Every structure is written in structure tokens, then in C-alpha cells.
């Protein structure tokens, strides 16, 4: 018997959340109700906590979920009860010019479960069938990376890396390391990751990335100088996976002439950085953004299944729903934390 209420993390306004009983409804036609196995907490959830990114209230966050199918709405025939599935939390309006020309990521109504609609930091999650992907046979500790891995796949779609190139990735958070691994398997001859978090760098080495560079808080100039030396004329791809404006500002000078800078980490909306337009012009640099994901979950699950993207050792912390505040603290400021997951 399914209960008529469930527990969920609920924000009524920025920075103010409670964990409480909320009504649990049946799935409507075309919908799937999942019993949440676990869900990843990520930097975006910290932005949501502050009222940033794409939000409306009341909000239940949680956009990186894996669960088991618990009930099927009328007409749902691609899943069976008990099946392990991952969720693509993102959706668009389907009607605007961007959606109708296949550029769904640019939809002004982009959003979804865990941002605009109730997400998975709850006992149950209800989503339309088309947002659900079978993760049968995958360990839930691997499948929980489906959404961040989909963001990494999209980053690769944006970069279209050429064989034999070099890449520098700032930031060794989970999504940064997923992207770095895909760069390596997409033909980059050498991938360097740079971060202030030593345990994460060690994990990057365990995952097979070529070089790990430990940055020191407050010594950015020295670190940039050292990385420039290692880049030996610049990296073909310089990727920011930190979302930290001071770091993003230094990406351009580390790119090889003709190279590409990718802004992949989530910055604050009011951040501004200073770069030299002359340098971009003279050295024919490309600056690109990579925003979220919309149709790359199947590719992500395939890469997770084959081991092309490895996640072993990435989950370091697990919290119950009641400890959502502690989970966010871990993501925010615990250098020993890597992937933090919520387990209802
Ligand atoms: Zn995320
Ligand atoms: Zn649209």
C-alpha cells in the first residue's frame, strides 16, 4: 500500500526549507511514480537555495534522481513496476520558436523537476514517461550520475574536441571529472585537471586523468603562471567547471591561439569578468557556454554502462532527508566531500 503522504524537502522562499509530510498523489495518465532510491546534490542546488537559477516556490529540489518504478499512470507501457530508472529532470514548452527548431535548451520556459516542479529530495517523484530512462543492471550508485553525465555529454557536443589536443579543466567536482573523462576518451591527448581539493585530485588520478594540479587558495596568480608553463603555449581547450568568476577570468590567457574556452560551471547571474577583447581577436579564441542537458541522458547512460565514464569512489557522503542542510554544507564547504547523495 502506498501511503497518502510522503516526506519532502520544501522551500517556501529562498534559504528557508523544512522537511515535512506533503500529499502524495497518484500518477496521471502518461506519468510514472518512482520510489526515490537516491538523488545527487550539486552546486545548482546551492544556487537554488539562495533563490538563484530557475526557481519557483514552493520548491522541492532534487534533479539527479534514480528510483524504482512504483506506479504507472494510464497508457504508460515502456516501464514495469520495480524497474530501476534514472530521470531526465529537464523539460521545455515544446511550442516556442527555439523548441520548434530543435534548440530546446534555449527555450525560455526551460526548467523541470527539482527547479520549477517538485523534485526528488522526497520519498517519491512523479514524472512523465518521456522523462524516464531504464537503468536496469546499473548500480544505483552509478545510475545516480545520469543527469550530471548528461551535462558532460552536452559539454562534449559543444566542444567537439579534436584528436591529439590538450585540455585543462578547472574544478574537480563530479561534473568536472565526468567531462574530463569524456574529453580523454574523445581523443584529447592530454587532460590536466586543476583544483584546490586534494582528495578530489587524487580521485581524478585514480580515474585515469593525465595530470592533476593542486591549486592553493589565495595564490591564483602563481597557479596560473605554473599552469601556463605546463600548457607550453596554451591548452587547446580550457574548461571552467568551478563557476568561480576569478577563475573564469583567467581561462582566456591559458588557451592556445585558436583555442576554445568553455564556461561549464554555474556562475552567479550578476558576476562579471574582465577579458581582453584584443586578445580574443588577435589570437582567434572561441568562448563558449555549455548549459545543462536536454536530450543526452541516453548517451550518458551508455557511457556509464560501458565504463567510458567511471564514477567509482565519487560518492563520499550520504544523508537522509532530515539532514538536507548538512548535505548542502558538505557540498558548499567540505573539501573531503565529492558527490553527496540524499537517500530518503
Ligand atoms: Zn545537478
Ligand atoms: Zn520552448
Automatic annotation (TrEMBL):
Its EC number is 1.1.1.-. Residues 174-301 form the Alcohol dehydrogenase-like C-terminal domain. SUPFAM superfamilies: GroES-like (SSF50129), NAD(P)-binding Rossmann-fold domains (SSF51735). Coiled coil: none annotated. The keyword Zinc applies. GO terms for molecular function: oxidoreductase activity; zinc ion binding. Belongs to the zinc-containing alcohol dehydrogenase family. This is 2-deoxy-scyllo-inosamine dehydrogenase.
Amino acid at each position: 500500500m502506498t501511503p497518502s503522504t510522503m516526506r519532502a524537502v520544501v522551500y517556501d522562499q529562498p534559504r528557508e526549507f523544512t522537511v515535512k509530510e506533503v500529499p502524495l498523489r497518484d500518477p496521471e495518465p502518461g506519468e510514472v511514480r518512482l520510489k526515490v532510491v537516491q538523488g545527487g546534490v550539486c552546486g545548482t542546488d546551492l544556487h537554488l537555495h539562495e533563490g538563484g537559477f530557475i526557481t519557483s516556490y514552493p520548491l522541492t529540489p532534487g534533479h539527479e534522481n534514480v528510483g524504482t518504478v512504483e506506479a504507472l499512470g494510464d497508457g504508460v507501457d515502456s516501464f514495469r513496476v520495480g524497474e530501476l530508472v534514472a530521470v531526465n529532470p529537464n523539460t521545455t514548452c515544446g511550442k516556442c520558436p527555439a523548441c520548434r527548431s530543435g534548440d530546446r535548451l534555449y527555450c525560455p520556459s526551460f526548467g523541470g523537476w527539482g527547479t520549477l516542479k517538485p523534485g526528488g529530495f522526497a520519498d517519491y517523484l512523479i514524472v512523465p514517461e518521456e522523462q524516464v530512462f531504464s537503468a536496469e543492471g546499473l548500480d544505483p550508485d552509478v545510475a545516480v550520475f545520469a543527469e550530471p553525465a548528461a551535462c558532460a555529454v552536452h559539454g562534449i557536443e559543444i566542444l567537439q574536441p579534436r584528436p591529439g589536443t590538450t585540455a585543462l579543466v578547472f574544478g574537480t567536482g563530479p561534473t568536472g571529472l565526468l567531462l574530463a573523462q569524456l574529453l580523454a576518451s574523445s581523443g584529447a591527448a592530454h587532460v590536466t585537471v586543476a583544483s584546490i581539493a586534494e582528495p578530489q585530485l587524487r580521485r581524478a588520478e585514480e580515474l585515469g586523468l593525465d595530470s592533476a594540479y593542486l591549486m592553493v587558495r589565495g595564490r591564483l596568480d602563481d597557479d596560473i603562471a605554473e599552469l601556463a608553463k605546463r600548457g607550453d603555449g596554451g591548452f587547446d581547450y580550457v574548461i571552467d567547471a568551478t563557476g568561480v568568476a576569478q577563475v573564469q577570468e583567467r581561462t582566456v590567457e591559458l588557451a592556445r591561439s585558436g583555442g576554445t574556452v568553455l564556461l561549464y560551471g554555474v556562475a552567479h547571474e550578476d558576476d562579471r569578468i574582465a577579458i581582453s577583447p584584443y586578445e580574443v581577436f588577435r589570437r582567434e579564441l572561441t568562448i563558449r557556454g555549455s548549459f545543462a542537458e536536454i536530450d543526452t541522458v541516453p548517451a550518458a547512460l551508455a557511457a556509464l554502462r560501458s565504463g567510458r565514464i567511471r564514477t567509482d569512489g565519487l560518492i563520499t557522503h550520504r544523508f537522509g532527508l532530515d539532514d538536507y542542510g548538512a548535505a548542502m554544507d558538505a557540498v558548499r564547504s567540505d573539501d573531503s566531500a565529492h558527490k553527496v547523495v540524499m537517500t530518503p
